[in-house]
Give the backbone structure.
Amino acid sequence: MNWKIGLPRALFYHTYFPLWTTFFEALGGQVIVSPPTNKIILDEGIQSVVAETCLPVKIFFGHVQALCQKNLDYLFVPRLISVEKKAYICPKFMGLPDMLEASKIKHPPLIKPVINQVKTNQVNSFLCDCAAPFTTKWSKIKKAWQKAMQEQRDYEQKLVKEIKTTDLNILILGHDYNLHDHYLNLGLWEKLRRLGCTIILPSHFPQRERETHLQKFPKLVFWTYGKTQLGAVYSFMEQPGLKGVINLTSFGCGIDSFMDSLIIRRLIERQIPYLNVILDEHSGKAGLFTRLEAFVDIIRWRSDNHQDYISSYGYNVGTCQRDAGTSGSRGDCAAPLY
Ligand code: SF4
């Protein structure tokens, strides 16, 4: 191996790391991944990008800073526009290479292919752009890509789980970089597990199943991450045992703000408790944990059909006839929604 390429452990990394690490290694490179997010990475990210951007992008810049100290030959920062037909990722993903080049960070040369599946299904051109500094031999590039795609498929397959009914099945929605960066999400998983919850993630449902259920939604969803969240909500609502939904969102994220509204409407129809956690660099564990404890208490009260329980949707569950969370109807509960 004679060249080193840096992969920031942020944003697209959390969805596609098997793909890109396998691809560059199969081309003969050494992939250097930044360490898990920590306070230094967060602080450096905050200082190197404009304040208006969302927390995941700030963290991305912190990871770039960490990699810049590693004596790299290249840094991989794709311009990710779309990874499927009729849906986009996010404008900030599209602008990442430009934001980095406009910043004061002294970085190694960028490998910045444009990935836009809305425009073309042809991967040849962006693969050639990715591999250009190392090889122009198409047979080698193609072989590396096939191997990488297989790794990615195997990884996604391993994430799919059978959903079992437990006392406290909680669906956690969020973009992969919010869900899987435990510094960013303030150890939310660990806390929920300590509270006795079973955590279900969107990736536990096969993509095809999520897409099939999403067809119940009357309009097209134009954002890939939004499709994943809404598809997971529909998929989980098909099964018994969903006790609550937590949506982990980022302050300043336009997509999250309107997807949140669409999700909550679906959950109101089924009277499923819902908590929206908005994260930014000022979020603290104490505030988050208090909210999680209150949320779990509410679900337990509700499960016990406690007479004093009034949901935030306006129902007094103690007076409802329906089987909360499984019947999917309002039964003869007379309370208004708001
Ligand atoms: S989708 Fe939202 S959280 Fe993700 S990069 Fe874009 S604005 Fe930030």
Q: What stands out?
A: The chain has 13 helices and ten strands.
